Amino acid sequence: MKLWDRLFYAPSAGARAYLFSRVFLVMVALDAWTLMIGHAGRYGVDGFNVAHFGWLDAIAPAPTAALYVGVLLATGILALALALGGTRRSALLALFLLYSFSWAMSMLDSYQHHYFVSSVLLCLVFFPELRARDVHAWPLPPAAAPARDARTKPQEQPSARPPRPAPRLARGFGFNLLGITAAILYTYTSIAKLDAQWRDGHTITRISAAKRVFAPLEQLAAGFGIGEDTFWSLFATSVIPIEFTIALTYLVSVRADSARSPWPKRIALAGWLLAMQLHLGAEAMELEIGWFSYYMILFACAFLLPARVVDSLALLLTRPANFVSSQLSDILAPPQAARIVEVTLALTAAVIVMLGAVGKQVDLPGALPACLSVAGVLALAAVLSAVRGRALEVRPLLLGTGAAAALMWLSIATSEARWDFYRFLGGDLRRRGEPAAALEAYERGERYAPKGQSRREQIEELRRELAK
Amino acid sequence: MADAPETPPNAGIGSRRLTNTFIAAFLLFQVAMPLRYYLGDRGYDERFSWRMFSTLRMQQCEMQISEALSAERSAFREVQVRRDIQVAWVNLLERVRMPVVEKYLARRCERQNASRVSYTRRCIDTDGSALPVQTWLMDCASHTLREGPP
């Protein structure tokens, strides 16, 4: 049991779990809103669907574009509300279920990394529950005001602040479990590449831009007398030990902060270098794998970098979070206990109105019902908290949800999500011989067309076709 | 670092035994899901197997679906699949995602009053060589799917 306990219950720097959970939740929200929604028009076409699991086909409603969009919007709002307002286990569990339903409802979403994101969200439920001030003290320790000694040079003056203390440790088996899960993932990805076609280099040369991007390396190898086929075979085969080594470093990393030996830290750092090389290389090859590389880069930074470095990176989040909390202290922790319920209910009403307005402005099927559903759940949570005499506790979630709703509108309005949704939908309807519906989709999408990508020609063609 | 101050431990996670059971079940799931691919007969269904940049996905494949109507039992006619379902399903049909193949063939049986529906797939491997043609046939009366030509 000792090894088991060391693996799953060893404490790690709290900054790791804090940084990872907050950034990951923000990424999930943005991924759902700006990337996944664009493909929603595929769902429910002519009633054909196959869920990832047979039992889900039997119990879940048949997916439609509105259902898919609604689930994604609600997923994003919840993820961002938790990132901004603080994580809670029950809400994280709800997020895990909601997100998992978004991909499991149909095989149309077969991205493997969406299944991985679900695994991560389940681990997040069991992460240490940390607020920014648990990671970094707030207010900042007062600066010492040393008497300036005119005889010493400025750089020799005593520092204004005391040295930063060692990163605080935190326990939560979810963090360790996630590290081990990453090790399992990398092990399997290396095993998958053992097949002859991969090792021959045929597969990697067919992956989009690999040949172009790594052409200088190929030329360099040619200078050493290494032929093209041999180079690509060596290149592809080298990925296998790299991925396997990264897997081992994740296993070691969960012990890095609690071990007295420096070796786990050194091994983890070597893993970080390999992981960055692998994932930046994958991005350079322009692989169509969504944000998988970015998720894994976040993993590498949170798990494999030295604790001091992660602690410094986390400052980028904890400082603003602590500052905003202190500015909102009148709302989050009022000094007087008067009218707590009334203010909480007023805040709830304001957030509900905001959700309704955003749901209408987003202009996507399912957006308004999704926002109103989130509003309903929020109202229920607020009333239950008030009844239990804990009206203050729900306020961070309320403020987080309000901010998440505003950011959702902003990210959808500034991204090409709506344009993608309507143009893909229009194209598919036209292909399947539904010109009237295709015209409607194209016309709606035209409002969101980026410069130079107008579908005016298709619209005119469809109008002529319908006029006949 | 080992002597660094710790934040308060989490409360409410439950007993250690329950936690250990959850951890073991979670890990078993993470190991078993991809293992099903390698140990089972799931050749083209790479879901949950972490086969990133898989060779199978790099193959260039075309599939064709044809059906024989009940009235004319011998003649097969080609189905315009791209006009019938959303094009993303066509990609899954080309990848022989068997639950999709089965459901689509069954749908043709039900909607078009067909007696038999056939699925044929031709692929070029990543090294440029042609792979053996794959064919499945659904008998609409029994809704059974068997591998092989009509």
Structure description:
The complex is a heterodimer of chains A (468) and B (150). In chain A, 69% of the residues lie in helices and 1% in strands. The longest helix of chain A is centred in the middle third of the chain and has 26 residues, at 228-253. Chain A contains 23 helices and two strands. Chain A folds into three domains: 2-136 and 169-324; 328-414; 417-467, no CATH class. A two-stranded antiparallel ribbon of chain A has the order 1-2. Chain A has helices spanning 2-9, 14-36, 54-59, 65-85, 89-104, 112-124, 132-135, 173-192, 196-199, 202-206, 210-213, 215-223, 228-253, 263-284, 292-304, 307-327, 329-332, 340-361, 367-387, 395-414, 417-431, 435-446, 456-467, and strands spanning 12-13, 169-170. In chain A, helix 18 runs antiparallel to helix 19. The relative contact order of chain A is 0.13. Chain A has 468 residues and is an all-alpha fold. Chain A is flat and about 80 Å long. Chain B folds into two domains: 14-52; 58-147, no CATH class. Chain B contains five helices and five strands, in the order ααββαααβββ. The model of chain B has no long low-confidence stretch (mean pLDDT 85). Chain B is of the alpha+beta class and 150 residues long. In chain B, strands 2-1-3-4-5 form a five-stranded antiparallel sheet, covered by helices on one side. Chains A and B meet through helix 6, strand 2, helix 8 and helix 10 of A and helix 1, helix 3, helix 4 and helix 5 of B.
State the gist of this model.
Chain A is built from 23 helices and two strands.
